[in-house]
Design brief:
Blueprint: H1 2-22, E1 29-33, E2 39-42, H2 47-50, E3 54-57, E4 63-67, H3 73-106, H4 110-154, H5 161-222
Antiparallel strand pairs: 1-2, 1-3, 3-4
Helix pairs in contact: 4-5
Length: 223
C-alpha cells in the first residue's frame, strides 16, 4: 500500500514537472520551518509540519499563498469571542450613527425635542389618570360586592357562587390595573430619560455641525 501511494504521487507530479520545464515561474514550492527552526523549501510539506503554517512560493521566491498555522481549541474560542465582540461594537456604532441621523432629521432645535417630550409625557399621564379612575371604580364595585355578601351572611343565607366569581374577577382586574399603572409610571421615567438623552446628544451634534461648517468655511477661504 505504501509503494502504491508513492507511485500515485509520482504520476501526479509528472505533468507538474513537465509544466515547470516550460515555465519555471509556474513551479510551486513550499516554504516552512522545521523543528530545528530552519527554513525549508521543498516540493511538499510533511504532514507533521503542515499544521504549523507554511508558504506557497514560485521559483523566484514570490509568495503565492500564505497558509496560517492551525489554531488550538482555546485560540479558536478566543477568536470567535473577539469576532462577536467586534460585531457588537460595529452594530452599536451603526445604531449610534442612525440615532444621530434621525435626531438631525426630526428636530431643528432643542425646543422641538422638549415639546415632543412634553407631548409624550402628557399622553402617558392621561393614560395613568384613566387607569386610576378605573382602579377607583373597581374598588367601589368590590366594596359593594363585599357588602352584599355580608348582608347575605347576616341573613343566614349562603353567598352564591355567581357573586363569589364576580368578586374574584373584580380582584383579578384590580391587580391587573395596579400593575398597568405601575408599568405606565415606569414608562414615564424611561421616556423622560430617553428624551433628556436625546437633548444632550442633539446639543453635542449641533456643536459638531458648527465646527464642521467653520472648518469648511476656512478651507474655502484658503482656496
Amino acid at each position: 500500500m505504501i509503494i502504491q501511494r508513492i507511485i500515485v504521487r509520482q504520476l501526479v507530479l509528472l505533468p507538474l514537472l513537465f509544466c515547470s520545464a516550460l515555465s519555471a515561474s509556474e513551479q510551486r514550492y513550499y516554504r516552512y520551518i522545521n523543528l530545528e527552526g530552519n527554513v525549508v523549501i521543498d516540493h511538499r510539506v510533511p504532514t507533521d509540519y503542515a499544521g504549523h503554517g507554511y508558504q506557497v512560493i514560485n521559483a523566484k521566491g514570490a509568495v503565492l499563498e500564505d497558509v496560517p498555522r492551525l489554531l488550538s481549541a482555546d485560540e479558536r474560542a478566543a477568536r470567535v469571542a473577539q469576532m462577536i465582540e467586534e460585531e457588537q461594537v460595529r452594530a452599536a456604532q451603526q445604531q449610534a450613527q442612525k440615532r444621530d441621523s434621525n435626531l438631525l432629521l426630526r428636530y431643528s432645535s432643542v425646543e422641538d425635542i422638549e415639546a415632543a417630550k412634553a407631548r409624550a409625557l402628557r399622553d402617558l399621564r392621561i393614560r395613568i389618570s384613566i387607569l386610576q379612575g378605573k382602579l377607583r371604580s373597581l374598588k367601589q364595585k368590590i366594596e359593594a360586592s363585599q357588602v352584599q355578601a355580608a348582608d347575605l351572611e347576616r341573613q343566614g343565607r349562603e353567598v352564591d357562587s355567581a357573586l363569589l366569581k364576580v368578586m374574584d374577577d373584580l380582584r383579578h382586574e384590580l391587580r391587573s390595573t395596579e400593575q398597568n399603572i405601575a408599568s405606565r409610571k415606569e414608562e414615564v421615567a424611561k421616556v423622560a430619560a430617553e428624551y433628556d438623552s436625546d437633548i444632550k446628544r442633539f446639543e453635542e451634534l449641533l456643536v459638531l455641525v458648527e465646527l464642521r461648517r467653520r472648518k469648511e468655511r476656512g478651507q474655502l477661504t484658503e482656496r
